[in-house]
Amino acid sequence: MLYAVIFLVSIWLMRVSSEWVIGGLMRISKTLQVSEFVVGFCVMAAAGSLPNLFLGLTSALNGIPELSLGDIFGNNFVAMTLAVGVAIMFSPKKEIEAGGKTIQSTAVFMMITALLPIVLLFDGSLSRLDGLVLILLFFGYLGWLFMKRDKSGRIYRHEKEPPVLIAALRQEFRDIALIVGGVATLVIASLGIVGSAHFFAGLLGVPVLLVGLLVTGLGNSLPEMYFAVASAKRGETHMIIGNLMGSVIVPATLVLGIVALIHPINTASYVFAVNSRIYLLASTILFFIFTKTKEKISYSEGIILLILYGVFVADVIF
Questions:
Q1: What distance in Å separates the CA atoms of residue 113 and residue 110, rounded to the nearest whole number?
Q2: Intra-chain end-to-end CA distance of the chain, in Å
Q3: Which of 1-10, 134-143, 251-260, 307-316 has the lowest mean pLDDT?
């Protein structure tokens, strides 16, 4: 009972602290006046990947990096299926725009980064060299993104009038405090999740990789899903696509690479890990195709992605 309470409270703390960090970074980004896609990718997706990062660091340092692998695979699968479908349901046009050179190029890169860990795991392990390759890939894309002149459209603005200087400074300090406090809470929450997940995996006789796929992967995706729904309601669809693409790219490259550098990941003994990679492969290909067809993800395509997520969960559980 104690471990169940610790696990649930830690999941809740991770969600709340993620919202603190995301909220602070979003308000600060308004001052910078960057594009909606870059805000969605660099601000929201990077901040939203902090739970994956802290969970990965904690699990690797505790000798169970498989929990992080399951968390990232689950996170990526949710981002490309459930999050897309739910966002479309709340979008006024019942679709998500994916037009623009940067977005279309990022769609190609996202497919590569989602598939690369699957390819690297063909030998049953993700080595430190594999981790280094993933990290270099991330920074290579980041450099390309900021060198692009096409910032994918509209500038992200919220307030119609600039705030008073003193009030703005106060808000900046509050946002910084929220970010620092959120990161500290993320560390505590990740410790609680790793400890309790390890306990339950041993108690139930299931691999921690499965816990990551079904539980922490979904739980850590909640900030991105919340952001996607909120952006869909406002019609800021470029922010949605930037957020979803970034929430796949950042964990699959930077986070997973760091985890593998700390502790190589071995999946040779997990038979169901093959099935999870098949589903992840299918979702990646479908997401890529849908973003390329008419440069948008339609309502019917969103339904297909939702069905794929439902089939995956049913297959893993039953």
A1: 5
A2: 25
A3: 1-10
Q: Name the DSSP class of 127.
A: -
By the 8 A CB rule, do 56 and 263 touch? no
Report the pLDDT value the prediction gives residue 151, as an integer from 0 to 100.
Answer: 46
Question: Can you tell me which residue has the tokens 């850590």?
Answer: 220
Among 136-145, 152-161, 258-267, name the one with the lowest average pLDDT.
152-161
- Residue 120 to residue 18: CA distance in whole angstroms: 30
What pLDDT, in 10s, does the model give residues 195-245? Answer: 777 677 777 776 777 777 777 777 667 666 776 776 777 676 666 777 778
Q: How many separate helices (H) and strands (E) can be counted in the chain? A: 16, 4
Evaluate whether 91 touches 237 at the Cβ level (below 8 Å). yes
Quote the DSSP letter at residue 207: -
Give the C-alpha separation, 228 to 88, whole Å: 9
Provide CB contacts within 8 A for 280, sequence distance 6+.
Answer: 73, 76, 77, 114, 118
In 3D space, the residue among 281, 302, 311 whose CA is nearest the CA of residue 73 turns out to be 281
Across the strands, what pairs with 265?
Answer: 126
Residue whose token pair is 């990232």: 72
Judge whether 212 and 194 are in contact, CB under 8 Å. Answer: no
